[in-house]
Amino acid sequence: MDEPALQLVTDVGAxxxxxxxxxxxxxxxxxxxxxxxxxxxxxxxxxxxxxxxEAAKKVQDALKPLRETIVKHSLARHKDRDVRLLVSICASxxxxxxxxxxxxxxxxxxxIFKLIASMFEELADTESPYFSKRVKIxxxxxxxxxxxxxxxxxxxxxxxEMFNVLFSIVREKHEKSLINDIMSILTHIIDEEASxxxxxxxxxxxxxxxxxxxxxSSQLAVSVLQTCCQxxxxxxxxxxxxxxxxxxxxxxxxxxxxxxxxLKIFICTPQxxxxxxxxxxxxxxTDQVDxxxxxxxxxxxxxxxxxxxxxQNYHDLFVEFLNRFSDKSVEVRVTALQCVKDFCxxxxxGAELNEVLSALEGRLLDIDDRVRIQAVAAICDLAKCNLxxxxxxxxxxxxxxxxxxxxxxxxKALQKLMEVYRSYCSMCAEGNMTIVDHFERIPCNxxxxxxxxxxxxxxxxxxxxxxxxxxxxxxxLLERTMHWVHMFSLFTSMHVKALDTILSQKRRLQSELRNxxxxxxxxKETCSDELEKKIKASFERMSASFLxxxxxxxxxxxxxxxxxxxxxxxxxxxxxxxxxIKAQHARENFMKKIRDRHxxxxxxxxxxxxxxxxxxxxxHVQNILNYLSSGKFGGRHLExxxxxxxxxxxxxxxxxxxxxxxxxxxxxxxxxxxxxQLTETLAKAGSHIFVKLSDIYPILERxxxxxxxxxxxxxxxxxxxxxxxxxQYVFSELTKRLVDSLHSGKxxxxxxxxxxxxxxxxxxxxxxLDGEITPLLLEKTFQMNxxxxxxxxxxxxxxxxxxxxxxxxxxALVKSFLPHHGSQVRRNIDHLLSLLVKMLQExxxxxxxxxSGNDSSHIRLAAAKSVLRLSKRWDLHISPEIFHLTILxxxxxxxxxxxxxxxxxxxLLRERVIPSRYACAFALATSxxxxxxxxxxxxYMGEFVKDHAREACGHQTSSVRGCSITGLPVYILVFLIHVxxxxxxxxxxxxxxxxxFCHFCSPLFHLIQxxxxxxxxxxxxxxxxxxxxxxxxxFKGIRKAEDAVDAHKSPRLHILSDxxxxxxxxxNQGSISSSCSPGVVLLPSSIYTANTxxxxxxxxxxxxxxxxxxxxxxxxxxxxxxxxxYGRSVEHHEQPENTKSKRLRNVSHEQANSLTTRxxxxxxxxxxxxxxxxxxxxxxxxxxxxxxxxxxxxxxVEHGNDGFEPTMDKEQLLSSxxxxxxxxxxxxxxxxxxxxSRNGTSLKENTEAxxxxxxxxxxxxxAKLRDxxxxxxxxxxxxxxxxxxxxxxxxxxx
Length: 1294
Hints:
Blueprint: H1 3-18, H2 24-40, H3 43-50, H4 53-72, H5 81-98, H6 109-121, H7 131-144, H8 146-152, H9 156-169, H10 176-192, H11 196-206, E1 209-210, E2 213-214, H12 216-227, H13 229-245, H14 258-268, H15 280-284, H16 289-303, H17 310-313, H18 315-323, H19 330-338, H20 340-346, H21 351-362, H22 369-385, H23 392-399, H24 407-430, H25 437-448, H26 460-470, H27 477-488, H28 493-525, H29 529-543, H30 549-560, H31 565-576, H32 580-594, H33 601-611, H34 618-630, H35 636-652, H36 661-670, H37 675-685, H38 693-706, H39 709-722, H40 729-744, H41 748-761, H42 763-768, H43 770-781, H44 801-816, H45 830-842, H46 853-874, H47 880-887, H48 895-910, H49 920-925, H50 931-947, H51 949-953, H52 958-961, H53 972-981, H54 994-1011, H55 1021-1039, E3 1041-1043, H56 1050-1068, E4 1088-1090, H57 1104-1129, H58 1139-1156, H59 1160-1174, H60 1210-1217, H61 1221-1232, H62 1243-1255, H63 1258-1265, H64 1268-1292
Antiparallel strand pairs: 1-2, 3-4
Region (Disordered): 1127-1208, 1227-1265
Protein name: Sister chromatid cohesion protein PDS5 homolog A isoform X2
Main location: nucleus
């Protein structure tokens, strides 16, 4: 025993005890000595001494004065902090020395423990100078188990306070020993006396967080729960079960957050909740939506706890959780989807994973767009976590949501899928993944968004930036090129068209920007109004490349007013830089310099991004050529894709091939499979790169002489592109070799192609030898009577080789009159035109005999297409006879010829390379007996009118101003009437049957309908009113004119004009008077002339015109009602229409209905006027006024608009033209699957009816037309057959 220490404690206690009111300083000094002395007394020695009563009594006596001092002077309640601290130290040491006996009486213990607890409260202040002393007190209390005395003295309130204090003071920066001492006190108290009050303290601290991270008190609570799991489990189970089963019961605030408590406990001690978790099934099944939402969220988080296998352990709960994916509440379904990512991450394998993924897949087609959005987000988030883990089909189905009907879904899908694709590209670049088609289809689907017209974010202006800046992460250009090649291998024609739209828009902006910079430079030198107009027009065109054209145009104007040449010089530099790396570096420097000093920095940032080569650059081209030459693609389909990509790039930017000429020539020499495509690439880029013609000429010459026709065409173009000004002699040498081959008759199809293409590129060379070439060409092609009849896979397949040679020869001659680059042709075209007349009339020339009627069809088609091509340049030389014969190809006996001809006409009209008057062909084809040709003709005619409606906007007041209408779509009526008047099928004078006239005039009626159809004018009533006025003007002008080609046909012109005028009046319903028509109508003098003499007209029965119109209306009404009836039967299969479509559809229905119901007064007026006008009489000679022309007004040839919507492939075209049999096959297959015909007849009967309609040629119809007794029956039969065929096709097209 330490006698001096005991004696010192006794003396200090006695000294204080003798003081009645000891001051602070005395107390501090004395207690400090006592505390020091007590710390020197070892408990072990005391315990040894305690074995002897005398020794124990000695210790008690030694400590008695100090104990009595603490009690007597109430030092535990002293107000001074220092005194209280020293008293706490002394008290804790006394507890230690005298343990296990309590050193104070029970009535004084509460004050002592409160004092000690107050010292614990200060432990949070680790910077305090007394922190170590307080730690010592805690350590002493923990080791001597003072709380046992508290429990024995029933100080439950003090224990609860101690719990709260210890949880509140714990900090992350506390040493582990301190935490252990606190933990020791807490766990031992729980072991001795656990209670709900203590559990509440633990749970309250369990949920505490600091900046989203569990606090030290939360970690302490977790440790307590884990250590005392067995003791606390009954209390936890009882509390949480009560919360689940009786949610509305009042109680602790913890009941409001019991879901958080469950999750926290499950994460740290899941075994504690084994009996609680199954009760959550009740919450998943409750009728309260908010409860289900919270329950789904909790259960999802429980199942996502790693390593717990909760989904397997609580199977019934998992099954009900799966059911919530199809819950009737949208919010519940969304909440379930939000749990998918964490669930799949925690459960990477097993049947439960597959079930969750299946439920997720089902939500991609949910009826609510919010659920579909969340499903897409869940799939994409899951993919980003582990691209190798997610099923690839799920990615593909998520990508399909880019076509969702809701814009919000498409936007979210775009955002999330782009994130997935960038992650995928990064992994490929790091070597962690190989290229996978499913991921490469993501940008393919993204491209299809450019067809979306409902959302401006998806327009090509924005898609360009997406492809340039957002598609790829920060990976090398080589990696980007490889992804583009794989992507291109998956492209369809629609993807190519979408990409072409974006690239052409980018090229257009670059071209216009160069033009503006040149104009601006020129403006500094010479300022003029003309230059200002050009600059303004340039601004308008460039602004079209931005999402907000109006704002962009304003910015261009403001930019033009600035005098900072640095900006314009930098833009010019960016335009000329073909390397993406260098362009990006130059752009970064440009933006740094103008960032702080230019008010339009945002616009310049956007403009500079659009003008550089950031989608494709010279590096892309180099990478493609390098891989092709090294054979690293590892597959033929990738090589094909790379070639297609290269051609797509070069088509828009041939200059990007600069620097890669050696590789290109190497591939051209060595790469036989892709030589055609590489030659075509060379032909496009030849003028922009430097290639020695001598290096590649032997290959190109061989292609011109021995290759296919396609090869020879691109080979000649390549020679012309690469040839320098000093190498023009090459064409002369090549021409001579071609003429030699023509003499020998070797490989004539290729030689003819080469000669025709050569004539286009070098007119002078061809004309030098024209005296030898043309006669020889005619001899070798048009005067050969027999060749073997084998066929090839080209567009002339199906005819004999002799027929093919004639067509090839004709094409060569036609090309020789259509040189490139606007070169002048000095030869006379009359001989070619006379040849075309013979071919259009007979299908052969007079000096040869065709092998079959099939050959005749191909000859007529080739001649008609040749006229179309020639009309681009030689329209003034094309006589009315040739024009009529060409247009009447739309009524050719062969359905194949009719189909190809109208498709070709449509293509050329959309490209604006032929005069608009050739649209008459569509009107003639609307009376076709083949339903698909008829329907397509109506569609093409509507497209033609609609495409020209924009031009018509500038002529809205033409009727007031008296301006010319020759450029408007309505003007083709002038040519159609003349064609019909000269048609040999015109009804004979002696037979005035309304059925005959109705059928013959149907092209006129259909054209008038298209010209006034609101859908073709976007509902613009002003344009429609103008069109009615112009129609009346045209009919009035024709009635005052006569036929310039054949005066005997003039009465026909007047009859057709009267019928057309009456039909227009029936559509107009008197809204616009014919007297309001323009005063001037310019009629082409080549086909119309002034009426200077009386003209004899047909004597037509009174009221015949009314009968014709009524019959046409009835036929249209029958077809419309049939289609409407069928449409209603399949209405539930169709997607909802937008408001605009419905409005326009209703307008068109109203127009159709107006054909069947007319005001009786209007009918009587029309009948009286027409009956009077149709009687045989001599018309008075009209005055030579403004209606007559004294000069030629040829149709206007319009140019512009590069793109057009591609027509069907030739194979598809032929299959759709041959007969209805092929369609019937499909129909019969559908019939077998349960889809029967809507009409009462069998499919076989329908097929027979359809076939009879198809094979009924116009020639046979002409024969019937001349026999009026058979005509009515024929027309009725045709009407029934057409209606049956419409139904049949409708089922197929369903």
